[in-house]
Specification:
Blueprint lengths: L6 E6 L3 H10 L5 E7 L3 H11 L3 E3 L2 H5 L6 E4 L6 H10 L3 E4 L7 H14 L3 E3 L7 H12 L7 E7 L7 H5 L7 H17 L2 E10 L5 E10 L4 E7 L8 E5 L2 E5 L8 E6 L9 H4 L2 H10 L2 H10 L3 E4 L8 H12 L10 H15 L3 E2 L10 H8 L1
Helix pairs in contact: 4-5, 5-13, 8-13
Amino acid sequence: MTSRSVVRFGIVGTGRMAVRMAQSLSLLEGGQIVAVASGSPERAKRFAEAFGIPRAHEAVAALLADESVDVVYVANATAEHAGTTLLALKAGKSVLCEKPLATGAKESLEIESAARESGCLVMEAMWTLFLPAYQRFSQLVASQRSAGPLHLYADFGYPISAGEQQRLVTPGRGAGVLLDRGVYPLALALKLFGAARRIEGCVNLTADGVDEHAALQLLHEAGDVSQIAVSLRVLLQNRAAVSSASGLVELEPPVIGAESLRSFAHRPAGPAADPLVTAGMKAGIGNALRRRPELRRLNRLRQRGHVEHQPYGADPFLPMLGHFCEQVRAGKTASEVMPPGLSTAVLDLVDRARELPGSRPPVATTPLTSEEERQGAS
């Protein structure tokens, strides 16, 4: 904990997300990077030079012992997130951990316990939930609650590049689409609708048994339903929408980093009229207009709903970083936006999704020659 105006960060890791977050922290008023640690001393030194960081440590233990470090941003390999977070909490450092917080609910529960014992803040870097568009989306969804049970559709997926193959589909504790992409829509679903009492669906696996595509359905305690799709192999719509009896509100694509919302109000039709009575001049004019393609196009434009822009400013990670620093200065032990219990609940769903029926690609076979076919028949 710290009451100082500038929160001093130590970064563990020097990979893609460490670089990205260092760039964001350079824009954050009230935040400063004072140390970095890596398993490679040379990479730590290069990282420190690139971002003007005073100290480059050769090991995580050295960074955790650095008294100039107030909080730790954990950005090493996914399989190491939980272990590094636990070490930081035991060292009395608050933690902002890159998603996922852990590889399963059991590890996440250990982190919750360690955070309570240490009195330090721990927060998963689920940055999307802090974006102004997501905050507004939550407000609009809450306003639909009186219309009865709600329905969420959310997806996030696109084919991975060659450079992402090793990180995402090489068998290991941190691999797969559920941990890399599934946590985003799952966190949104739980944030909007609360706990899920049932999960069903199908998870597609690579030949090595790594989850690469998933289609899930959650039934929430209050009766709401969430349909979620995530993929490493196909381009999905990358959108999120909540429907109710009163209308629909959606985060416009791309849903990750969304800055705009679109809403549609549903106005129930009046009492059914006798079609023979309404088949007069007025109906005839309407039918004539519907036969004009250009007028149908104008009508579609008119029906595109209400658009609301909610920009996040100079950098999409700044809302989350600003919130985290505010929590640290206030001596909070949990964020009200992304508490560790929410991280655990998401990882519990990941664990349960892994137990769903899975499918693997068919095993490639070599066609038999005519001679082999004759021998097999004999």
